[in-house]
Structure formats: C-alpha cells, structure tokens
Design goal:
By secondary structure, this protein is an alpha+beta fold. Helices cover 57% and strands 19% of the residues.
Length: 424
Amino acid sequence: MFDRISIRYKLIVLLGLSAALALLISSVITIYSTYLSESRSSLRVLHQLTDVISENMRAALAFHDGESARTLLAALRADPHIQFAVVHDEAGQPLAEYRAAGGRADVTARLEGVRARIRENADLLRREDGFVEHIEEGSMIVLRPVFFEGKPIGLLAVVSDTRLLWAKIRELVLLQAVTSVVTLVLLLFLSVKLQSMFTRPIMSLIRAMREVARTKNYRVVLESDRRDEFRDLHEGFNAMLADIRERDDRLSRLATTDALTGLANRRHAMEVLQTMVVRARRKAEPVGVIMLDIDAFKKVNDLYGHPAGDLVLQEVAQVLLASAREYDLVARLGGEEFLVVCDGGTSEVTIAVAERIRAGVEARHIEYEPGALLHVTVSLGVHAAVPQSAAGDIEKMIRAADKALYRAKAAGRNRCVVAQEEVG
C-alpha cells in the first residue's frame, strides 16, 4: 500500500516519522535525566535533614533518653513527606520512632524494611562517614550512624515518600508531551512546505516524461535553474531526449533517403509527390516531373567496376541537387533512375531545370581513380501539367515522363524530351 503513495506524501511521512522519533528519543532522555537529577536532589534534602537530626540525637542516645529522642523525631511532622523515622541504640534496639499521621505502611513492616537494610549494609554503617540511601517505589530511605567521640552509639533511619519527586516528573512529562506535540505539528507543517522544494523538480520531470510519452515529441528541452543533483537529473533527461532525437533522425533519414546518394528514396518520393499533387490541384498550379537515367550505366559498371559506378551515381546526385531549385524534390528511384519534381513548375520551368541537369552531368569530370577521369551523360523525360485528380494523376504524370525518357534514349541519348500526353 505504501508503494502506491505519491513520493511527496512519502516524504512528508518520512519527515514526520523522523521528527516524531527524534522527539521521542529526546523526551525519554530528558525525562530519565530529570528523574536521576530530581532523585539525587530529593535524597540530598533527606540527607541534610538526617544529618541535622543525627547531630541533635547524640545526647539522647548517649543517655538512652527515649523521651528526648521522640521529641526530636516529632519535629519531623513539619515535613509532610516524611512517612517514618526510627532511632536505634548501640544494641540495635529501637529507642524512639515517628510515624506520620495517616501513614499507609504498617510500622512493623517499616521496621522490618529498615532492619533488612541495616543487615545488608552492616559493615558500611560501622564507619563514621558511612551512610545508606535507597529509592524504591513510593519511598526513599536514608540510614545514618550516630557517633560520639569516635564510637557508634546508635543509628538513625528516615523514610520519606516520593510524591514530590513524581509530581515533578509528571509535570515534566506533561510539558514534554505538549512541547513535542506542538513541535511535531510545526515540523509537519514545515515538512509540507519543504517537500515541495524537493519534489517540485521531480514532479516537473515526471510531467515532462508523461507529456513526451503522450505526444512522442522528443524535441522538448527541460529547463532548470537549480544547482544541485536535480540539475544533473534534468540534464540527464535532456541528454536522453537528445539521444532519442538523434536516433529518430537517423532512422528517419534511413527510412526516407537513399543510403548511397543521400537523395530521397522511392517511398519517400512518392509520399512527397502525393502531397505536392494535392496542393497543386487545390491551387490549380502545375507540377513538373522529370524522369532521367544515366546513359550506358551498365557499361560503366562492366568497364570500371561497381565502386566507379557508385561514384558516378553520387556525382550525378550532386549535379541534380545543384541544378534543381531549393524547394524541388530530387529522388533516386533505384539503379541509375532518378526523379525530379518541380513544385509549381510550368513546362518552361521544368524544361529549364532538366536542361541544367543534362548540361551539368555532361560537363562533370568524374575522377574514379587518381588521374583517371570518366564522363557520363543522362537522358531525361519531362512532363508538366495541372493535376485534375490526385488519385490517378501521379501515375499518369510519371508514366508520361517515363515514356518521354525512353524516346530521349531512342533519339540518341544525352537529351531532354517533353511528353506529348495530357493528364486529365
């Protein structure tokens, strides 16, 4: 399903997920680091309170004065977070204890918990600088030994709840969640804006590709003012179109031109002639047709070889192109036979073109080998008329010019003969 989504929406989703993941990771790190910081801060406050009480508790422990010890512990009710406190004498027996009003935990259970911590850390609590701190679910515990003149005389344990700690954490989580949501919304908004910067050139390229595929117009050039990789993409697309254009032009030339002479081939000549006749019939203008072939061409091939014959065909083609007008059609029909169609050519114009061709070929010096020259002539049949029906006039005009060509050959070659037939 994700594969069917447009790239612009994929980019938005990607940016959104990346932003959400980054915010989640940063939030977790922030909350955890805050938890550690607040935990240390809360324990530090509890330590300070325990230090003050332990200093004041020395006299009560030294004289085993339980009443004074209870009075000192009763001062803890000023702190609503203190749940429980107990002081033990040097024999490990409880001398006094304090329990907050409405405390959730049973005194016996608290005492057992404190004693367990004392047993686990007995060695540490024998040192004057020793202490034990511990945070568990719902409470914090600090154990502090009380010394007098370098000798242990008792142990103080204070238990506080963690409501303040978790209240700060909840506030932080709420603030972090609101901040993350607002940030994510802003990032998504920016993602929508930013994705267009990245996808616009891609979408432009896709539209161009679809347009080229639809119209087959490979002459499109895609412009780009970018300076990044998208410019390379556009240039690559333009280079691909240029290659396709070159290939199509080459194929078109192969399909419409004669490979040896570069003139139009028979198929293309008939297509162009059809267009000329239709236009001439519509405008009531004449079309001139010249059929010609090279005199005694077989003898040229037999005496001088086919390479010399190919050279003669190429030289005659050059004379035809030089003698015909720019907008006339010049084609090789096959072998040594050529066709020239004079667009709008009256009989006089067509005869003039044919005579230029004949004289040009006759005057041409063809060097088929270094220092060896060859001369050839051509015979031409000329026909000019205003077409009356495009469907049949092409064949009639070519047939008339062809008959005139054969009469020119029969009359001795190297001459122009005008057709006597009328096209109607």
